[in-house]
Specification:
6-stranded mixed β-sheet; alpha/beta; 4-stranded parallel β-sheet; 22 helices; Rossmann fold; 5 domains
């Protein structure tokens, strides 16, 4: 079992570390703490590489037990030092609600809800992409209104019973006596979307507790608005967070840099371009700005370009080897994929040499990069990265021609599709109890049986129930995982009849707000295949 003492650097997670949280933390924002140490905070899943454990945790927590069984690295809050205080993401972290960039109306709505509690509802559901500030706003709101925060990671509670036991001590009164003065409480339940259908009633228990009249305000936080949260959306104030616009972010950051760092000459237009390249992620923008400020005082053009422009600089130019290497490192994960996509088109237009020979030589260098990149990913041998990137530079030089005018890595789309198919099959396997080989062997038989032309929809629903499958398994998983040439489909009229028959056989629980499929589709945010 490896703990934080096994990390090469006690203040930094290795690259591509996916860190799940458990326990109660002393730190106000453990996710920001993880990011500051180089980790990527995620909800519990099979891709997790580390489990970060708060100072207060249960020894019998199911996450901890599964992490030990999987020999996962355990990182304890008490063992690692606090994040460095000179990072701009910490210096500019909001201290009050007025410091939050964007979300002005959202914060106003939440503040009005809390001040009027419980007349506007006993709970609020905050949804939005990771890193947008949901948890930070919840903590700052509680501080501004004089509430003591009790934060729980909802995905730690695997069932309705465990959730009920964890909250039992907070239900009896509306205040906690802590010393001479009693304080109001606000309960934050983070990662409620991590309580999936396999959690045996966790979301349903939260919904029941809110509907029956909890004696304290509850803030539920989720990254995705999925169908499994329908029960909560019917009993909570619906608050949606989106990433602020690039203009709003650029103006706010320029003002902060001028006021706190004394940086007078900040071009808002350049900051907007930086926002666009970083997906309007404020933490990523600040990290990029800090990195650039640590470089030489002269304006270095290489820091002003994106991966696409950097890739174009690698092909058919008279740039020095050092300049090409610098361009390759603009984005060491994206540039190799762009070179791999563009080298055939460049070799087609190679200058003064055989195009086929140039393409073959470039392909060899791409192969070298692929081997080194795989080694880096398997063993975290980051000392090989310079050699891997020089292979990319050599591939572009070997192609000896200009790149296509427009190009984008096809691998990204194919890999996204592969990950989606794997997730669909994993869900299907979990419901049926089948092994991977068994699923691979029986998918064609299932398709032949379920999609038989004259089969009544009633018999299809009965067969799905007997196999432990759902309508989505049939119309999504079995359809999308077909091999090329074996595509299947069901006519729209029969599909609608099947949907009606399925809903008739599996009615929604009473008291839960009905949501149309169109609303679900609009609200659902698909998972990032990072």
């Amino acid at each position: 079992m490896e703990t934080s003492k096994c990390l090469e650097d006690a203040t930094m997670f290795p690259p591509n570390s996916y860190v799940a949280l458990t326990g109660q933390w002393i730190l106000q924002d453990p996710k920001a703490w993880i990011r500051a140490h180089g980790g990527i905070p995620v909800i519990w899943s099979s891709r997790c590489t580390h489990l970060a454990i708060g100072k207060q945790h249960r020894a019998d927590c199911w996450k901890l037990q599964q992490a030990k069984a999987a020999n996962m690295r355990l990182v304890y809050e008490a063992e690692l030092p606090p994040p460095p205080k000179d990072l701009w993401v910490d210096i500019f972290a909001p201290k009050e609600l007025k410091d939050v960039i964007g979300h002005a109306q959202t914060v106003k709505d939440l503040q009005g809800w809390l001040r009027a509690w419980p007349s506007k509802g006993r709970a609020a559901l905050l949804t939005g992409p990771p890193g947008v500030g949901k948890t930070t706003v919840a903590h700052l709101l509680a501080k501004a209104e004089g509430f003591q925060v009790v934060e729980m990671n909802a995905s730690d509670e695997r069932s309705a019973k465990s959730l009920r036991e964890s909250l039992a001590k907070f239900v009896k009164s509306t205040t906690l006596s802590l010393g001479p003065k009693a304080e109001k409480r606000l309960v934050i339940l983070d990662e409620v979307d991590g309580m999936s259908a396999g959690d045996r009633g966790g979301v349903a228990e939260i919904t029941r507790m809110i509907r029956e009249g909890c004696t304290f305000p509850i803030v539920c936080i989720a990254n995705e608005r999925s169908q499994k949260l329908k029960g909560l959306t019917g009993v909570c104030l619906d608050v949606r967070f989106t990433r602020p616009q690039k203009g709003t972010i650029a103006k706010a950051i320029a003002a902060k840099l001028k006021g706190q760092m004394g940086m007078e000459k900040m071009d808002v237009g350049s900051l907007e371009d930086l926002c666009e390249r970083n997906g309007n992620d404020i933490r990523s923008i600040l990290n990029s700005l800090q990195f650039s400020s640590l470089s030489s005082g002269e304006k270095d053009g290489i820091h002003q370009i994106d991966a696409f422009d950097a890739t174009r600089r690698l092909f058919g130019t008279a740039a020095s080897l050092a300049d090409r290497e610098s361009a390759a490192f603009v984005d060491h994960s994206m540039v190799p994929l762009l070179v791999q996509e563009a080298y055939l088109g460049a070799a087609e237009k190679c200058r003064g040499s055989d195009g086929l020979a140039a393409a073959a030589k470039a392909a060899d260098r791409i192969g070298d990069w692929d081997l080194l990149d795989a080694r880096i990913g398997r063993s975290q041998a980051w000392g090989l990265l310079p050699s891997a990137m020089m292979s990319v530079v050599a591939a572009a030089k070997a192609a000896n021609g200009p790149p296509p005018w427009q190009f984008f890595p096809a691998w990204l789309g194919k890999n996204s599709k592969r990950l989606k198919h794997r997730r669909l099959l994993q869900d299907m396997r979990a419901r049926t109890g089948a092994t991977d080989p068994h699923l691979m062997d029986t998918r064609n038989l299932l398709r032949a049986s379920l999609f038989y032309a004259n089969k009544p929809v009633g018999k299809i629903v009965a067969e799905l129930d007997s196999l432990g499958l759902t309508r989505d398994d049939m119309l999504e998983t079995l359809v999308e995982t077909c091999m090329k040439g074996d595509e299947i489909a069901m006519e729209t009229k029969k599909k609608s009849a099947l949907t009606r028959e399925w809903k008739k056989a599996h009615p929604e629980p009473k008291g839960i707000k009905q949501t149309s499929e169109t609303e679900i589709e609009e609200e659902y945010v698909s998972e990032d295949e990072d």
